[in-house]
Write a structure and sequence with these properties.
The chain is of the alpha/beta class. The protein folds into 2 domains: 269 residues, 3-Layer(aba) Sandwich (Aldehyde Dehydrogenase, Chain A, domain 1); 189 residues, 3-Layer(aba) Sandwich (Aldehyde Dehydrogenase, Chain A, domain 2). Helix content is 38%, strand content 21%. It has 14 helices and 22 strands. Helix 2 packs antiparallel against helix 5 and helix 2 packs across helix 6. The radius of gyration is 23 Å and the shape is globular. The protein starts with 8 loop residues before the first strand and ends with a strand. Bound molecules: nicotinamide-adenine-dinucleotide. Nicotinamide-adenine-dinucleotide (NAD) binds next to helix 7 and helix 8.
């Protein structure tokens, strides 16, 4: 198995800031399972970013005229390479982020599927012709928006980067992506697959840096026409303001606080088998994680007992070990933030059934945690916990449950378990969320738009919408 790779930026196809570079600052990359330093990632300086911007401008001029077949061939080729390299990339991902290898491999495969889907969509950005009297014409065209500045977080280091670059490349844009400095190898691997598949070097570039410095620099340039960001709502609002200064387009994929409505008419064990695994996937560091379990009163006690039993049985360990179901959290900020929120909740009267503490003193392990009867004013019921904690509360019935689902300013994913089809249509209509899942734990599919409403952001990735989000409309009238 390959060891952790050399880290660098890729600017205009050139490897920039390798380990022998003495002119740049570097930031350590940690292994969250041990807390040890894996390597160091180079941070861009102003000259690097200016060079990337000039390249992106040139790349856009060329790529906007590339045939859809050429764009599709690059995405298909990159998908093939991601599949071939999946074991190696997954290993790097687990080393730098912590998730179990099987989840890491699944992430690489999803990204390959996304590129394949976008390859098809690249050929389907149809316009339309409007009805006009003879000799007159009006045509609606979709054109690539321009160079994109994209910022991807550390929780899904492969998928997030694939989403950030796949849409722009399919649409005919150039893109500069900044993956998280905490998980750089996975992001570099996605960009490298595209370059190896024939993507012109100026079309897809990767930089690292001090996040605020990089985003201010790129968003301050008139070359960039679109911001694409995945991360917290707080940072998203800050970046949206920077983008607004120059009226740049935005796709904002921000935080959530996923409600899970569980009605009494369910087979409780069957629901628990699905939702508990979904809760602790990626140690809960998932923007669409099921978080607030909104349980109908008659089944509350039974649901809680079954939840706690299953949470206690989860095997926590290094993501590289066979049989591990949950790895460490990705960074020390995660464990520290979660510990504070759990302490706040219990101090306000919440019941702690299991977990609520770190495991060992190496790395960033935090035990699968279940809290119940949590006052709605506790921090954890209002701010995204982004960790392995399930929040269980009891509600009288459908009206109260929908009110709880909509209580927060977030609106990313919502889940509901009920066999009752008329109830499902009421809830689909009334729940304020970008994605709603009935009787299942998944909301992500390459052909389905992924995105939120309210403070969870706007715009979509994946699906046809993920490509259209990188295009602007031009109407051409002829008389
Ligand atoms: P954070 O808000 O500091 O960072 C989130 C991401 O944004 C990171 O990848 C970071 O590199 C990037 N970032 C931060 N400031 C930036 C800036 N000025 N310009 C450009 N990029 C910037 O927080 P964090 O500690 O990494 O995570 C905390 C919270 O963020 C989590 O609890 C969760 O709520 C949210 N988050 C959400 C997602 C998601 O998928 N929606 C992913 C990661 C984190």
């Amino acid at each position: 198995m390959s060891t952790y790779p050399a880290l660098h930026m890729v600017i205009g196809g050139k490897t920039v800031g390798g380990s022998s570079d003495t002119g740049r600052a570097f930031e350590d990359v940690l292994n969250p399972a041990t807390g040890e330093v894996l390597s160091a990632v180079p941070l861009a300086n102003a000259a690097d970013l200016d060079e990337a911007l000039d390249n992106a401008a040139a790349g856009f001029r060329m790529w906007r005229s590339a045939t859809p077949e050429k764009r599709a061939a690059v995405l298909e080729g990159a998908a093939r390479l991601l599949r071939e390299r999946a074991d190696t990339i997954a290993y790097w991902l687990t080393l730098e982020q912590g998730k179990p290898l099987a989840e890491a491999r699944g992430e690489v495969m999803y990204s390959a599927m996304l590129f394949e889907f976008y390859a098809g969509e690249a050929k389907r950005t149809y316009g339309r012709t409007l009805v006009r009297p003879a000799a007159s014409r009006a045509e609606v065209r979709y054109e690539p928006v321009g160079p994109v500045a994209a910022f991807a977080p550390w929780n899904f280091p492969v998928i997030n980067v694939a989403r950030k670059v796949g849409g722009p490349i399919a649409a005919g844009c150039s893109v500069i992506v900044k993956p998280s400095e905490e998980t750089p190898a996975a992001g570099i691997a996605v960009v490298q697959a595209l370059l190896d598949a024939g993507c012109p070097p100026d079309v897809c570039q990767v930089v690292f840096g001090v996040p605020d410095t990089v985003s201010r620099h790129l968003l301050g340039s008139p070359i960039i026409r679109k911001l694409s960001f995945t991360g917290s709502t707080a940072v998203g609002k800050h970046l949206a303001k920077l983008a607004a200064e120059d009226m740049k387009r935005t796709t904002m994929e921000l935080g959530g606080h996923g409600p899970v409505l569980v009605f009494a008419d369910n087979d409780i064990d069957a629901v628990l088998d699905k939702v508990v695994a979904a809760k602790y996937r990626n140690a809960g560091q998932v923007c669409v994680s099921p978080t607030r379990f909104v349980v109908e009163a008659p089944i509350y006690e039974k649901f809680r007992a079954g939840f706690v039993e299953r949470a206690k049985a989860i095997k926590v360990g290094s993501g590289l070990e066979e049989g591990t179901q949950m790895g460490p959290m990705a960074n020390a900020r995660g464990t520290e933030g979660l510990a504070k929120k759990v302490a706040d909740a219990t101090a306000r009267g919440a019941r702690l059934h299991t977990g609520g503490e770190r495991i060992g003193n190496q790395g960033f392990f935090y035990a699968p945690t279940v809290l119940s009867d949590i006052p709605l004013d506790a921090d954890i019921m209002n701010d995204e916990p982004f960790g392995p904690v399930a929040l269980l509360n009891s509600f009288a019935g459908e009206v109260e449950m929908i009110a709880e689902a909509n209580r927060l300013p977030y609106g990313l994913a919502a889940y509901c378990w009920t066999p009752d089809t008329t109830r499902r249509s009421r809830i689909a209509e009334q729940v304020e969320a970008g994605m709603v899942s009935f009787n299942g734990a998944g909301v992500s599919a390459v052909d389905a738009p992924f995105g939120g409403v309210k403070w969870s952001g706007h715009g979509s990735e994946d699906g046809a919408e993920g490509v259209l989000a990188c295009m602007v409309v031009k109407t051409v009238h002829e008389s």
